[in-house]
Amino acid sequence: MLFNSLHFFLFFPIVFFSYFFLAPRHRTVFLLLASCYFYMAFIPKYILILFLLIGIDYVMGLKIEQETSLSQKKKYFFISIFFNIGILFLFKYFNFFNQNISEIAQFFHWNYGLPALSLILPIGLSFHTFQSLSYIIEVYRGKQKAEKNIWVYALYVLFFPQLVAGPIERPQNILPQLHETKFFDATRAVSGLRLMLWGFFKKIVIADNIALLVSTVYGTPTSKESAALVVATILFAFQIYCDFSGYSDIARGTARILGYRLMKNFDSPYFSCTISEFWKRWHISLSSWFRDYVYIPLGGNRQGTAKTVRNLALTFCISGLWHGANWTFIAWGALHAFYLGVSFLTKKIREQLWQTWVLRRVHFVKKYFQILCTFVLVDIGWIFFRADSFGEALYIFKKIPAGIQSIVFHFFEKSFLQKLFADLSIQPMTFILLLISIGVLLLVESRFSQKWLTNWSHFPRIVRYGVYYAVILWIFFIGYFGEVPFIYFQF
Amino acid sequence: MKQFVIKILFFLIPLVLLFLFPVWILFESGEFLSQSQIESLQNKPGTKVLLGKAYVPSDAVSLVKIVQDKKPEVLVLGNSRVLQIRQEFFQGGVSFYNAGGSILTLADLNAFLAQLSYSPRVIIVGLEQSYFHTMWTKQTMTSTVTEPSSLTTEALLGIIKKVYLDFWAHKFSIADVLQKTNDYRAIGLNAVVHHNGLRNDGSYYYGKILQNPNDASLEDYHFQDTLQRIAKGERRFEHGQTVSPDAVEELKKFLKTCQERNIHVVAFLPPYAPTIWKTMHASEQQQNYQYIDALEPTLKQSFSERGFALSDFSNPTLFPRDSEFIDGFHGGEKVYATMLLSMASSSPIFGQVLSVSELQHKVEKTSQDLAVFPN
């Protein structure tokens, strides 16, 4: 079930009213059933995979806690890891590794004939697998008590607002909340609705409109002018942000209405001054997961420069692989590891440079310069993330300088603009409205705006309602209502 | 909770009203009528329906099914350039249906015929010249879909949006939507506002153009759109020197099947407006449309050896006035009536079904360039 569907607009009010009218002792099971229904709207039989993993992790969690012997604890821990990673591998990575091994075997003239599997990837598999792993790791480390109530544990995994695309929650945040009795709070509900509205604005107005344009350009990059490739690449940065953060906002808003707090997954990442800061603001639930369960256990930055760089490379390559079974995603992860490695190695030099006589005079633009540089570096990474193949990514990357040059020198020429809009398959007015929408996004999500937005509820009702109606009408008239699934659904 | 729900409901009232307005427009104009409801109206004795939906697509009921149900003696096949042929051209008692618009490639002719379990007495085929251009594929687009399609929420939201945008752009007014005419039952906003739409017999009524042929807002006013197509060599005006042999083979297959099923075929190459024909044969375009000039000599024998008739009206010598054309390549009713009279003179079988003398009289007496019959 997509959030931006009539099905959800009928489903959620029913869940909301039923939830608060039910006696508290029935609410966990009710939410669980609602979550199962939500998930089964995609491919019903795949819920059995979740049931299997829930059963295994629930039992293994209890056994880990009950056992005093470390070796036994480890055994149960690895059984859980095996099943979680195994199922993820089978559905998501088997064909990728199989194909690569097959190509290597062909190169060396080895006999290798394992056939590919034709399995549809269960929706949200990567997300709820990581959430389950988070639970079992925390129980193993002794930082989380094993959940005794199977319905509560099942709801921890299946909770529908964050089931298919996160945020990837930690058990310490969610499990205690699932034990609490929630009472309806109008202020909280309004806040949740506001967050959902903002999420729909990002998804329907910005992400889905850009998706059409980017698909046209990235679908046949060799037939497009370089300027179109540049514009599509820049806009893809906003597409992926708005798609994913929009989903997260809708998820958090939905959960908030029901009384649950989900973690903030994005914190204005394109206003980051460094790549390191970017990763503290982008997909926070996933990056913190990799930090806590991969990077730090590998040694983090505590074992010297060489190992720090190694740990960064491994963590980000695995992160890239998590996003998709394709070399382009691994390249994307490796590129970010490279950025972070260079950043780590050159930190002192850069700080010294800013202290020189020349750059001290322009210190006031330092922040904006850094934001721009960070955005450019991240956007270059998005080329590899979005392109259909490594070859196409390289082709687009090579065309960027020429594209920028042609935009700078020909932007005011009518023929240039006509060709650009033809390549982008977009009407000029639609493009302008899209740019205005992105402008509104940047304005609202800047740190500057956050300060006065926290006092939003104190604004006069006429102003608040006027803005809500304006956003709804903007979504209605400018938004794209064809079916464009959330990008992160494929993960 | 109660207060919260009441506040939300009050908040939603203006939005509901916002959605109600275009929904009312769509209901009032008959856009939501289903195919089966439309067919019931069309089959009601004495009810003339003009079907011209602008927003809500009709159910995906194929023309094949309609023809199969009606089993007309005289059937018209072709693209939009056959839609002027109407029931009134034929003898009373001769059942007729115009399935124009169904043939986008020549393969569609064979696909359509293959799905008919009965054999019409006469098939009139409009052979769009570009069917024979080498770039047109053999892929058939005729389907046998008969299930009603459901309107998705996303599609409905898009339609509601479009209604608003068109209303604000003054493409129609509330008074337009409320207007009624005694001549026919208009279904769909295009029929209600512009009087454009399909008649009961499948032919098309170009109401908007007929009522104001000099409307500067018309897409092909002074043939500007057609002239642009010629200049760019696009949208059915692609340049070509030779006739596609694959297309000829496809047509021969169709003729052979018709001969085997005892169906008489009268075919024609539809006319271009005089200005357009002149432009296509101007010196700078001389070589660009050679394939059209080669069509009649190439195809003639395939028809004559089967006793079928082919008439080439591409060069509009019979219709010297641009004013008799709806646009650059769609003749008006008078043009088509004149064409069919010419075809009847070379096909006795066709002459038996066409109402020759009455049609001749109407053509001679009409004072209008575009119409022979009212409505």
Please characterize this protein's 3D structure.
Chain A is mainly α and about 500 residues long. Chain A contains 20 helices and no strands. Chain A has helices at about 5-20, 25-40, 45-65, 70-105, 125-140, 150-160, 170-180, 185-220, 225-255, 275-280, 285-300, 305-325, 325-355, 355-360, 365-385, 390-410, 415-425, 430-445, 445-455, 460-480. Chain A starts with 5 loop residues before the first helix and ends in a 13-residue tail after the last helix. The model of chain A has no long low-confidence stretch (mean pLDDT about 90). Chain B is α/β, with parallel strands linked by helices and about 375 residues long. Chain B is about 45% helix and about 10% strand. Chain B has helices at about 1-30, 35-45, 65-70, 105-115, 155-170, 175-180, 190-195, 205-210, 225-230, 245-260, 275-280, 290-295, 295-305, 335-345, 350-355, 355-365, and strands at about 50, 75, 95-100, 120-125, 185, 195-200, 205, 265-270, 310, 325, 330. Chain B has a five-stranded parallel beta sheet with strand order 3-2-4-8-9, with helices on both faces. In chain B, strand 10 (about 325) and strand 11 (about 330) form a beta hairpin. In chain B, helix 1 (about 1-30) packs across helix 5. The longest helix of chain B is centred in the N-terminal third of the chain and has 27 residues, at about 1-30. Chain B starts with a helix and ends in a 10-residue tail after the last helix. The interface between A and B is medium-sized, with 17 and 15 residues.
